[in-house]
Amino acid sequence: MTTTGPRVRETSSTGGVPRSASTRFRAPAHVRNVIERRRVLDALRASAGAQLTVIHAPAGYGKTTVAVQWLQVLRDAGASVAWLGLHRDDNAPHWFLSHLLEAVRRALPGGVDAIDDLAGLVEQSAEDVQGYTLSVLLELVAAHEGGFVLAFDDWHLVEDAAVRRALVHVLDFAPPNLSVVLTSRRRPQLPLSRLRVRGQLVEIDAEALRFDLDEAREFLVELNGLRLDGDDVARLSENTDGWVAALQLVSLSLRDSDDPGALIRGFSGRHHSVGEYLAENVLDALAPDVLDFLLATSVCDRLCGELAGALAGRGDGQAMLEELEERDLFLRPLDGEREWFRYHHLFADYLRRRLDRDHPGRAAGLHARASAWFAAHDLVSEAVDHALTGGDVERATDLVEQHAMLLVEHSRMVSLLGLVSRLPATAADDRPALLMAVSWANCLLQRAEAAQSSLDVLRSALPAPGVDPDGADPDGADPGGVDALGEMRSEADVVQACIDIYGDRTDRAEGLVRTSLDRSGSYRPWVVSVAANIQSFCDIHAMRFARARERQQWARRFHDRTTGPFSGVYGRCFAGVAALSQLDTTGAEVQLRGAVVLARESAGRRSHAAQLAGALLGELHYVRGQLDEAERLLTESGELGAESGVVDFMIASFALLARIKAGRGAADEAAELLLEGAQVADRLGLHRLRTAVGAERITQLLARGRIREARRVAGDLPEGSCRHGGIGARIDQLRTSSLAAVHSAEGDHERAVALVQDLIVEARRRGQVRTVVELSVQLAGIQERATRFMAAERTLAGVLDRVVARGAPQLVREGGPDVRVVLERVAARALHGASADALPAVEQLEVVLAAPGGAAAPSPTDLTGREREILQMLDLGRGNQQIATATGVTVNTVKWYLKNIYGKLGAGNRTEAVSVARRHGLLG
């Protein structure tokens, strides 16, 4: 069979970014020279339904053949099979997860989109996502109709403890329709005893895999057509101890032997070395060109015709592979089209030893050829491995460097760092471009120390400004080279600024990105795009919200020209944060929904980019009072751990979600979120996050009357002096607001009022529209508690129209019972026609007083005292006029109260309201 070229790379949405070759995900195709292992298959059938099947024995016992035959039995019974041929690189957990996902993807068509999302997540995650990834994967398998089998070939290659734990996780949480089959040269280091006790383990060992006399006869006489009598077969079976590989070697030798009997008698216990036997009876009998082809191609774990031809220096590589398979020279096809092949491990090991013995030094050149071929076909991992195996560290480093930034821009940071980890520790030290990519990868994965370390090495590798790298007179240096160095220095500054803002530091970030923004026309779009995002972050936290949004409008053309989603997602998120700070909820929605859509389409629904954008969209839903959707999005954002992105994302994922949980009665969950947020803040040195979760904790403590504990927490909050500029100012705002809340709870309302009034003045000066509303609501509550009722009404009146017009009612609702009393009093007087011109319209009050979306079940604290009084009268059968007379209000006011009561109880009329109230114990 001849082909125009091998299929070596999977179709990928990421353009030129390489992926793993497909052969490791296909069980070997039908092999010519094998018998059906009926005896072993019958043993497996007897234990059908076991969760784990382990086929373990030394090389040459036919483990993979038995596994393939058993999997075909399972397929015939309706099971789907995912096959993964393991390589040494699977000892890196992220490579193993990526390969496992691809294997399952091929066997589970209905889960393609979800698995693609998980694959993207693995590439973009600094922290351990193994448990999450495997849990989602098992959910997909559980939803699959019919049995599903995970098959791992050559498990003995796995030495990494984390990868072993991954399989243990699969076994511990496997759904009923999932079973696992693995082959290994030794008994795997897995907790097999508990599976055995439960009857969920089947072991097929070397003893079971040995050919018995009948199988030896079938193989030698019936399959291979050798003219042997019963004694000959018995002698061979005894001398080989039923070892399949030895019997196959014997069959090869006997075919062309002039004296089979002598050969049989000579093959005895003295042939302990298969290598010796091969040299004496198989390889030495081959034509020199065939032997040379075998030796040249032995350096690769898998072969196609084109690759084999490149290694052997001949144009008939495919024909030679087909001839070797025809002659049963331990070459097995890896696919049904017979494009890819693999030598039997035992045979390949011997060929490599023979190559080194007969042709010292030749292997290095062959590995160089293999590396070049794999690189030309975008299989970078294999290309790097062959370069390193051949001792060419320089070439391996070149290959990684060539693909480094492309991997970063496609959000495959983990793959890049995995490739770099294979290089010698100092290989990249004089490679500025590679160091730059590594710095970016670590920065975007928020590995701050690693990012700073690689960036420091990069800076030391760059010549000082004005110094020609070749030591010549700078005035005579190539201008292009000088500009290139300047651009690299500017890019390094952008990486430094990126590290800084992840650490919530803005003191030098603007200066670091200025050159890249000024020279946007000549710098790479990726660099300009990230620089623009950093500038927007700085603008937001310097309260320059309009400038931050304008910057993102300007930067859109650079975002659109980058190859990965992250810069565009972050840009839209920052524009949304700026808009929400101005209480422009419509503008915020455009940006944040756009960020979520871009992240999901480009990086997957489960990607970090999607979850970061989702956290901010959840905050917008909260502001609008859409609590169900807010809680859903914020919960999703924390599924992978909420310590990703800049601090603004973390505050939403920890503090805001805790606020929603507490409001719905889940106090323990809220406390856990706040504790986790505080721990993350302390570990990463994020003072603004520490203050935000501390402030939320104070709010919740005061709501439960734990004033002394709230005072202690307030005393531990960081001060704004620990951070530069606007971030320090925001820390002080949160801290002072919390102290005011504690003062008021302690009865010192005057001091609390003074503190909050000063904060409002300063927030107005800075243009913090949302903050002004939040502080005004807090002030109204304090004034109400201080019995300054008219002042409280005026304070709320000053912000209510803006809150309603901009669709942000939750900012008032979160003021708590005291603010609600103010609103109800204003509403009642408005209905009496006694409200002043400055007081808001009844319609505005109804919007704010309406229960938020996803409100919790009714409880006594949801109803005001007046509402409970009216509910008692409803239970007595009183009419509207009777209730109005008894309470001293107008009939219209009674109707307004009834509307509120119905809304809180989810009732449609009086009868339903009374029934619901009785069911929840709201009536005496």
TrEMBL record:
Example GO biological process: regulation of DNA-templated transcription
GO MF annotations in UniProt: DNA binding
Protein name: LuxR family transcriptional regulator
The keyword Cytoplasm is assigned to this record: no
SMART domains linked: HTH_LUXR
Region (Disordered): 1-23, 462-484
UniProt keyword list: DNA-binding, Transcription, Transcription regulation
Pfam name, any one: TPR_MalT
The species this protein was found in: Pseudonocardia broussonetiae
Stretches assigned to the HTH luxR-type domain: 856-921
